[in-house]
Amino acid sequence: MAGFIDIQVNGGNGHLVNPQISNVELELIRQAHLKNGTTSILPTLITCDESGIQTFIECFNANYYANPGILGFHLEGPLISTVRRGIHSLKSIRSSLSSATVSSLNLSAKLCSVIVTLAPEVSGIKLIEELSESEIIVGVSHTRASYELGVKAVRAGAKLGTHIFNAMTEIHSRDPGIVLAMLENNEFFVSLIADGHHLHPSILKMTIDLKTRARALFVSDSMPFVGSDLERFELENGFLEKQGNSLLFYEIEGACNVKENSNVKLEKHGNNSSRRDEVGRKSEDIFNARLGGTLITMIDAVRYAVNEVGIDLVVALEMATSTPAVLLGIEDEVGRIRIRNRADLVFLDEKLNVKHVFSYGKEIF
Questions:
Q1: Over the stretch 293-323, which tens digit does the pLDDT of each residue have?
Q2: Which residues belong to CATH 3.20.20.140 in the chain?
């Protein structure tokens, strides 16, 4: 089968995608996923300040051709809701981008695939139109947008619901929220985190049934833990910690000024004595844990969907291969096995374990 394509990779092999990312770090992150059958990725930079975004774009463009299998990049933030921010740093969230940053993104889109995930109530509809016209894929997430604004965002050119249902307004009988705007449009793509934690199995199945394999795709939303023996990873605003087969994020009070946004309500974590001893922080400085990315790669998502949710194997495989390629507009290069497409191949056994991986026709694993 064709190699997997993951459009949301935050890290791997102990490294996080960061503004000063080097060619070596990019390759280490890619290798963590490659050995699990993911032959193409979009490194994903989570919310940082604008100077960090500019630095990241410069570093990425300088290293792009040196890293086969890296199709482009994904910016998740900084134009997101402070309330629905997840693990994103509150102090780095912005309500606008400079013209210089937008120009840099437009130039990058001529070189490679670019996704920008934003909240439409923060960015405004005009920016969605501008980015879309430059062939940047606009994703929507970390948002409090209403159904009505969601419809406007889709009409303006937004194409992707980034990790649908997570970090966005839910469906309610009298207030359908942005999720419904994503589900009802037959051309709109949605990405799903199939790790057994981010989505209930019935929600996962319903979404795939509604959107079909043509518009639903898997993402890993993976963190530096993939391919490493890390138990904890420090971020500027807190830390990630393994809890079984999930990742929890603990936000630190000093990293977020609640007074900056009166809508932000943070609850204290109730039992932090062990973490206080380990990382040297007082328990009252640590807030309730929430999901913070995953420990999975694309093959894990496929296995979970097939074995635990009952999704047809062919459907699950297409959601990890051809559908993301169609979203990126590069289905004539990757995502399918056919003449003139890149020879990215994965061989699986009957239990869906990765046995062999080929990248550009070369056996890697």
A1: 999 999 999 999 999 999 999 999 999 999 9
A2: 4-223+293-363
pLDDT in tens, 71-89: 999 999 999 999 999 999 9
- Assign 3-class secondary structure to the chain: CECEEEEEECEECCEECCCCCCHHHHHHHHHHHHCCCEEEEEEEEECCCHHHHHHHHHHHHHHHHHCCCECEEEEECCCCCCCCCCCCCHHHCCCCCCHHHHHHHHHHHHHCEEEEEECHHHHCHHHHHHHHHCCCEEEECCCCCCHHHHHHHHHHCCCEECCCCCCCCCCCCCCCHHHHHHHHCCCCEEEECCCCCCCCHHHHHHHHHHHCCCCEEECCCECCCCCCCCCEEEECCEEEEEECCEEEEEEEHHHCCHHHCCCCCCCECCCCHHHHHHHCCCHHHEECCEECCECCCHHHHHHHHHHHHCCCHHHHHHHCCHHHHHHHCCCCCCCCCCCCCCCCEEEECCCCCEEEEEECCEECC
pTM for the structure as a whole: 0.92
CATH topology of domain 4-223+293-363: TIM Barrel (3.20.20)
